[in-house]
Each structure stands twice: as structure tokens, then as C-alpha cells.
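Notes from the 1:1 (GR / supervisor)

We went over the backlog. Supervisor wanted to see one worked example end to end before approving the batch request, so GR pasted a single chain during the call. The sequence is below; no edits were made to it. Supervisor asked that the structure be written out right there so they could see what the output format looks like.
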Amino acid sequence: MNWDDPTDETTAAPGAADERLVGAVADGEDQAVEAALRPKDLGEFIGQEKVREQLDLVLRAARARGATADHVLLSGAPGLGKTTLSMIIAAEMGAPIRITSGPAIQHAGDLAAILSSLQEGEVLFLDEIHRMSRPAEEMLYMAMEDFRVDVIVGKGPGATAIPLELPPFTLVGATTRAGLLPPPLRDRFGFTAHMEFYEPAELQRVIHRSASLLDVEIDTDGAAEIAGRSRGTPRIANRLLRRVRDYAQVKADGVIDREIAGAALGVYEVDSRGLDRLDRAVLEALLKLFGGGPVGLSTLAVAVGEERETVEEVAEPFLVREGLLARTPRGRVATPAAWSHLGLTPPGQGTRSGQQDLFGT
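Structure output shown during the call:
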């Protein structure tokens, strides 16, 4: 692991998500493109208005005091801009940034090596901080609060703790599962923010900005069509824009309008609500094979030929957020919106008695 290489990151999402056009996890291509498209300051950053306003106050106050900024915790789904904000924090403070991830820190010694090499005022971005090992986590408590770590030399009764003073630094932690962070760690962050999913209008602004940087011609309707299928996530919006650009260059005159965007995303099997092949396979199995449910997760996974974890962690979160699927104690159940979206007619009331209890109909 090269601690000085900002592209050397480890992600925590399931492998299946890496291969999906609408997956929010960044692969190698995404990381390269994101580096070119990333905003360089808070003024360029689109969306997350409250977070930007609050963070701007924190950073301006720190600069006015001539002090290092407070530690920052950013939570939210992948692809919403946590890494981008960490880089903006470093740029706004005029400080270098070191990037690593929780899964890469499996021993306290790994963390001690990083901390001991930090410069004064440097920003340490720790992605997926909730996946850090417990010994490293406990070392981080003291480092964040007292800017000091105890390095243990030797083993057993003869072990000695050598205190190591650290220069003041800013830790920016990012997590997709804030609930897994222990309270002692969460409480040591001076500023915490939750990143929300983007509205279509905000994604249209992201798409227009990215199209300009990529030298792609796109009209308002074309941007709206892509934004509506981007699942509220800028990273997905930028990825879809690149694929639509490819289609427009090969099949049209290179200009993206609503018709071209719709045709291109149809080729890539991304429907009008942003569902892809896996999402629709889950819904179709639930509706056509099991009458809308309830059905157990393992049974549903077998029906679509995927691992249980893939269905639960990759497909279900978006389907639940869109109101197409419900998780209940009795199993997974399709909502009326799911039947409507796939153009299917629900079975008669007599065969839906299980759903009547769940939805109160």
C-alpha cells in the first residue's frame, strides 16, 4: 500500500457492485475520470447545501485562528462526494492530504506508521473507517484527542509503552454505515455530516458541468433524462453520461438529447427509474414466481441465480428506497408501485391475503 498515492484505496462494497453500470462503487476507470471532474473548492461543489454551509464555517474559523481544522466525519452512501469533500478540505486549508482506508489498517502498527509520518496540519482521509481493526481504533482515540500514540515495544511482562508525540492533523473519516462506529470514536469528531442523495435538478447541474469538462454537447432534456436514471448519485450520473456519450458518438452526431439518452440507456439496460438487469430480475422473480411475496431472501436469491449477499446488499437498498420492495418479518414483499412499474397486474384479492395484512388493504 502506497500511503502517498490518492488512488490507492480499498473499497468495502460487494464485488458484484463493481460490475454494474448503476453501481455506486468506483472502479479504476471511475477513479481516473473523477480526478478530472472533481470540484476543487466548496464553491464548485454541487449539492449538499447544508453540509457545504456548515463545513465552510468550520474551515473559515480554523483559518482565522491559524489552527488545524477539527476532525470531520462524513457518512452516506457511496458516490455522494465524501472523498471529494476530503480533498476540498485539504485544499481549503492549504494542507497536503494522505488517503487510506479502514480495511487497509488491520494492525495498530499500520496506523502508527501512517500517523508518525504526518506533517503538521496534514489531512488524513480514512475511508470506510468503520472497518478498521479494533486495536487500531483504540490507538486512534488518543491520536485524535491528544495527538499522541503509545508504541508498544516487546511482548508480555517486559513490554514497554513509548509515547510518541504527533503534530496537529485533521482526520476526515468517511463511512457508509455510521451505525457501526463505536460512540467513543464518533464523539471525537468535531464536525459530523450526513450526505444525502441528490435531487434530479442537482444531478442535472452535475451532468452539465461534467459534460462541459468532457467536451460533450448535451441539452437540458438529455441531462434530465440521465439525471432521472442516476439513482440520486453523482458518480452514477457521470458514469451514465460517459456511456451515453459513447452511444451518441457512434449512433448519432455526438449531441445528446432526450431521445439519444433514452436509447443509449436502453441499450445498457438502465430503465426510466434507474433499475438495471439485477434490480428487475429481483422484482420479476418476486412478482411472477411468488405472487408478490412474502418470500424469504435465500429463496429469492436462488430464483435470480445470485448470492444472498448480492441481493441483500446490492439490489435491495435501492428497491426499498424507491418504494418498490418492502422488508418484513415474514419476508420480502412487492409494493403496488412494483406491479405498476413492471406493467403487471396483481393477482386477485384471494391470493394476496398475505399482503393484505402487511399493507392494510
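Supervisor's comment: Residues 1-18, 349-361 have pLDDT under 50 and may be disordered.
Batch request approved.
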